[in-house]
Amino acid sequence: MSSLTLGVDVGGTKVLGIVLRDGVVVDSHRVATPHDDQRPAGDATTEAVYAVINELRARHDHDDLVVGVGLPGMMSREGVLAFAPNLPTASGADVATALAAYDPQLRVLCENDADCAAVAEHRLGAGRGYDDMIMITLGTGIGGGIISQGELLRGRSGFAGEVGHMVVDAAGPRCPCGSRGCWERFASGGGVGRLAREAASAGRLPLLVAQCGDAESVRGEDVTRAAAAGVEEAIAVMDEVGWWLALGLANLTAILDTGHFVIGGGLSEASQLLLPSAQRHLESLVEGSSARPPITVVKSQFGEISGAIGAALLARERLG
Ligand SMILES: [Zn+2]
After folding, report:
1. At what angle do helices 232-256 and 189-201 cross, to 10 degrees?
2. Per-residue pLDDT tens for 23-82?
């Protein structure tokens, strides 16, 4: 018999669970994220998380179990998902307490998903050896996890690192959080689609519009795929996304003097174009570039599973 460490990452489309043993993922299980708004906040989410936990723990003999759960949104120090603009059906939920109703013996730690990803990359991945780094996850929105002086920065209430809702254009498009012009409206997966449709409507994507039928049908994936295939007009849109990404990184650098950015999430799959573009623009956008040591922008090592790995690591670190 042995101890079992599980990490579960709740995203906008899937709930992914992994088994972490000696820093290595040895098993995984995923289900679709439910979006049931007829039940109390978080009920459907908790049910899906519990199903993933049960599946994984049944597969592995153990006499000790801890579970880390990464959730998208503002996580309080008490483990409550206080506000979740991109998962509104779970906004306000206390998932750990709800899981205890299913199984009072279960030892669970809940943390912000990007904070979890930051811990995974810092301890084991593309951020190893860096005391000051920021994890940026580019998915439906933008998540952030800040490692400062080797420690996860949590802030007064636990809400530090909500970098996606840093306003970069006060007159910009509306965000699900209620504000306008948040960074994630420009540099996330959703942001690429929006910038692409804007470019298409302005006549800057004639090839893609011809392929997709009309300007409104051009999606972010069409642009990233065409850019990867070398289509100039799509590369230009990706460079625009790279500029917006760099703008946020420059703001973060001005506040925190970060030397290393690790970029993860679905959009980072387009990283061959996006990251060099962001790195180049960052040099011109950041204050006093020539006076600073070089700032590095790299792709995450664990990709879409970094959140689940970090959730498992944090659960072991904090729950023993
Ligand atoms: Zn916002």
Report:
1. 130
2. 999 999 999 999 888 898 899 999 999 999 999 999 999 999 999 999 999 999 999 999
Q: Flag whether pLDDT at 240 surpasses 80.
A: yes
What is the residue whose two structure tokens read 């005391």? 131
pLDDT at 183: 97
Taking the domains of the chain in order of start, what are their residue ranges?
3-118+305-319, 128-300
pTM of the model: 0.94
Quote the pLDDT of residue 230.
92
- Cα-to-centroid distance, 160 and ligand 1 (Å): 14
User: From ligand 1's centre to the CA of 140, what distance in Å?
Assistant: 12
Domain 128-300 grouped into CATH 3.20.20.370: no
Helix residue ranges, H only, 202-264:
206-212, 220-228, 232-256
Dig out the tokens for 254 from the structure. Answer: 């001005």
Q: Which protein residues have a CB closer than 5 Å to ligand 1 (ion)? A: 165, 175, 177, 179, 182
Cα of 86 vs centre of ligand 1, distance in Å, is: 9
Residue 1, pLDDT score: 62
Using the mean position of ligand 1's atoms as its centre, give its distance from the Cα of residue 85 in Å.
Answer: 8
Residue carrying structure tokens 């990251």: 275
CA of 124 to the centre of ligand 1 (A): 30
- CATH number among 3.40.250.10, 3.30.420.40, 1.10.760.10, 3.40.50.300, domain 3-118+305-319: 3.30.420.40
For residues 167-205, one letter each, b for 16 or more C-beta atoms within 10 angstroms of the residue's C-beta and e for the rest, the string is ebeeebeebbbeeebbbbbbbbbbbbbebbbbbbeeebb
CA of 181 to the centre of ligand 1 (A): 7
Q: Decide whether 3-118+305-319 matches 128-300 in CATH topology.
A: yes
